């Protein structure tokens, strides 16, 4: 019989799991499903909280401990643990699934023949939590996904979906053991960075897998206070640039310590724009993020040069 695994990778979020797991159990699904909790080496009482719920009636909950710290390791463990199911649906431990998420996932995979499907991520703030400077244009960097209220096929990078609420046909992982979350884009605990979900999305596009956007597969995403700092957005872009420079660039004719000269020019240009905006008293964060990314690219190239040497 067709089965779905509803997977949750968690680190030190025992208090949230007390509320999240019962809500996950309440999801209506046209096929039998289980809840899989991947405990990514938590140091709080995650194990005890999950096991207390395992014994309760309702949708079965399965607990697995993944000792290697980092979200790609936890997600890949979830894939391996779900290969006996036909559908794998991820959710993050700082989210709440809205009604219809699993039903939408099953419809997309089984009826629309999608290999992968994902939906809306609504970024929510507690009263008084959102800073005045944090405009809607920054919400995408807090994992917002808002591509409208109509379903469509995703064919390029302009409309990404993130692992926060993405369903996969597990057959694609069985047929391609190399299709996994990239360990090089690791993020441990509350560290800034990551990107393994974006790399997976790009790999699916390049492999011409059928990717469906389903707005009914929605979650509410709650933002931690530590992310609501300007410095967080700068660090996020620096790390993204570093990983791009280190892992996604090739060889160039004109280089200095592994850094192509055009990257140096790009850095001076971006920081020059940021300085000009600062002098005129205009909003500088977005331009500062561009500068942080350019600096990260250079540092990534230097790291690559060092490792090659």
Main attributes?
Spore Coat Polysaccharide Biosynthesis Protein SpsA, Chain A; eight-stranded mixed β-sheet; 309 residues
Could you characterize the architecture of this molecule?
The chain has 309 residues and is α/β, with parallel strands linked by helices. It has two domains: 4-227, Spore Coat Polysaccharide Biosynthesis Protein SpsA, Chain A; 230-308. Helix content is 39%, strand content 17%. The strands form three sheets. It has an eight-stranded mixed beta sheet with strand order 3-2-1-4-9-6-10-8, with helices on both faces. A three-stranded mixed beta sheet has the order 5-11-7. A two-stranded antiparallel ribbon has the order 12-13.
| Distance linking N and C termini | 54 Å
Helix content: 25-40%
What's the pLDDT, averaged over the residues?
A: 93
By helix and strand content, what is the structural category? alpha/beta
Count of discrete structural domains: 2
What low-confidence regions span 5 or more consecutive residues with pLDDT below 50? none
Biggest sheet: strand arrangement: 3-2-1-4-9-6-10-8
Q: Kindly report the name of the CATH homologous superfamily of the largest domain.
A: Spore Coat Polysaccharide Biosynthesis Protein SpsA, Chain A
Tell me the name of the CATH class of the largest domain: Alpha Beta
Shape: globular
**Beta strand count:** 13
- Rg on CA atoms, Å: 21 Å
CATH topology of the largest domain: Spore Coat Polysaccharide Biosynthesis Protein SpsA, Chain A
């Amino acid at each position: 019989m067709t089965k779905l695994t509803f997977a949750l990778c968690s680190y030190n979020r025992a208090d949230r799991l007390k509320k999240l797991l019962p809500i996950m159990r309440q999801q209506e699904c046209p096929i039998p499903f289980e809840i899989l909790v991947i405990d990514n080496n938590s140091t709080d009482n995650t194990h005890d909280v999950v096991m207390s719920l395992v014994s309760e009636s309702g949708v079965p909950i399965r607990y697995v401990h993944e000792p290697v710290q980092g979200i790609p390791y936890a997600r890949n463990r979830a894939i391996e643990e779900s290969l006996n199911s036909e559908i794998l649906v991820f959710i993050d431990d700082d989210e709440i699934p809205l009604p219809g998420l699993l039903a939408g996932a099953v419809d997309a995979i089984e009826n629309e023949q999608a290999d992968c499907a994902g939906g809306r991520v609504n970024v929510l703030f507690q009263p008084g939590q959102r800073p005045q400077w944090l405009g809607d244009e920054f919400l995408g960097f807090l994992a917002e996904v808002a591509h409208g209220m109509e379903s469509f096929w995703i064919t390029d990078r302009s409309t990404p979906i993130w692992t926060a609420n993405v369903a996969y046909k597990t057959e694609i992982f069985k047929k391609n053991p190399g299709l996994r979350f990239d360990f090089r884009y690791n993020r441990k605990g509350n560290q800034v960075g990551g990107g393994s979900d974006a790399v997976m999305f790009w790999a699916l596009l390049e492999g011409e897998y059928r990717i469906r956007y389903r707005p009914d597969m929605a979650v509410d995403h709650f933002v931690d206070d530590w992310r609501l700092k300007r410095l967080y957005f700068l660090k996020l872009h620096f790390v993204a640039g570093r990983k791009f420079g280190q892992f996604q660039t090739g060889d160039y004719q004109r280089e200095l310590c592994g850094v192509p000269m055009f990257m140096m020019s790009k850095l001076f240009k971006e920081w020059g724009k940021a300085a000009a905006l600062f002098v005129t008293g205009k909003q500088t964060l977005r331009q500062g993020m561009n500068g942080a990314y350019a600096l990260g690219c250079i540092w990534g190239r230097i790291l690559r040069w060092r490792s090659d040497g």
